[in-house]
Amino acid sequence: MFDNLQHKLDKALKSLKGQGRINDLNVADTVKEIRRALISADVHFKVAKDFTDKVLEDARGQNVIRSVSPGQLLTKIVHDNLVDILGGQKSDIHLSGSPAVILIAGLQGSGKTTFTGKLGRWLKAQGRNPLLVAADVYRPAAREQLKVLGSAVEAAVYSEDQNQNAVQIAENAIKYAKANNYNVVVIDTAGRLTVDKAMMDEIAAVKKAVNPAEILFVVDSMTGQDAVNTAKAFHDVLNFTGVVLTKLDGDTRGGAALSIKSVVQKPIKFVSTGEKPDALDVFYPDRMAGRILGMGDVVSLVERAQATIDAEEAEKLSRKIARNNFDFEDFLAQLQQIKKMGNVKDLLGMLPGVGSQIKDLDVDDKAFKGIEALIQSMTPQERTRPELLNASRKQRIAAGSGSTVQELNKLLTQFNQMRQMMKMMKNKRFPGMMPGMKR
After folding, report:
1. What is the pLDDT of residue 436?
2. What domain range is 346 assigned to?
3. Claim to verify: residue 58 and residue 115 sit in the same structural domain
4. Residue 8 in 3-state DSSP?
5. Is residue 439 included in any domain, yes or no?
């Protein structure tokens, strides 16, 4: 996400390298480049100007201590100001009321219905019992989509397929929730291709009828400045409580994320980075600022790993590695765990310094499928004892997986290298060292 913006900001900040002090002369060009980067990312021009003016004000006359370069100091100043325009602190979702009602709004195609399903999964993980409500009376596919999503995340869905009155559906859903012990009601409303009076009147009527604890405006982050203009139109009518940015895994320029808080003065609460039900994250301004500047987001990476990886299985694997018994069954299990954590390029981008390095790299999640097919074409005995793989077995595995013997040999080489590395780490010995020596 934000690959081009990250690259341009990195280039601008590196221009201060070698200077002994930040002053008006040597920082002016850098700040000008930062403003250009923001404008090209479709950030609102006033937000870009106010941001760079503040950076210049904070940077003016700053002394550079011996261990910190001017570029590093300005990077911190830019980071702190990015955190400010992104909202400052994480904004929690409010779930007051019995049941608590969350109203979902946005244009058609912004990802409202998909987000509603993801939010249902997130609420269940928080110990809540959500009821998802299909209140889009204009698009039958939206009702069916929500039912499919609800089934996938094991959340109940309320729908009245013959009723064309969104207000009645919402009111009936709340009655149903009270009668059946659902403590959160999430209402997916209709979207339009453009903002129109009929749409606004309908969603305003739904809001008045259900008195929601939260109104979340879902915006497609790939639409840039248009998203900010749409957000303002919705905010004038609904006074929504928070923003959800979707499709951050796409070729987004960053304009919506960096502009929307300043324009509507409402916090970003969630970000969505894919189609999978678990591709939803709570929004942390400081973590996003770090990712934009190529500093990574190790905290979010660890949190994803903790939520995905089974601690007991991890302990079993650790013991197998210690005994040098790591096999293809373990390797396959680890691949599947990584896939559950999300888009691979997104995960790599969370590592400090890696984001800018993989900007133009096409990291395809489907690349795992060939490896999985090869391993799954092995017998259980072959997976635990790869040394059994002779020429005839390799030909059978290659044919069964739709691969070639050369691809299987490449996998075996990489796997053996991995096992050798694990063995060296266990013994704390490295190439070139005498036996008994430790690093």
Report:
1. 38
2. 303-427
3. no
4. helix
5. no
